[in-house]
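User:
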Amino acid sequence: MQTLMQQIINGLSLGSIYALLALGYTMVYGIIKLINFAHGDIYMLGAFWGYYAINYLHFSFVPALLSAMVMAALSGVLIEYLAYRPLRNSPRIAALITAIGVSFFLENGMSFLFGANARNFPQVITTKTYQILGSMFQMCNCLFCSHPWY
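Assistant: Predicted structure:
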């Protein structure tokens, strides 16, 4: 029973993150009718910036989070301006191929610059762990689960 409850908590928190990503894809497709394959790569750029801001610029959590959001937004605007805007009146397949190309460019460019080794994101906030019915969960899991429902 304890393992089942733990997996339910883990599934809800991970599923909530997937829901946020799906919401982003849906909003982009609903507005510009383009499946942006670089959507997840823009999240990756924000995550790398947050890693850099915390480890090398010594930002605390909130400034690193805010600066990562700004950097992700700026990279999205730059990608739209350079890659997608010139293709507004072209066939949809051209924009789709460009989206795949931008995704490959970002993934391989970051792999070339930073290597393919995994990095641990630093622990910058204290987390409180709760135990209910023998299952442990952290407050950040509660935030992940509740955020997509606002």
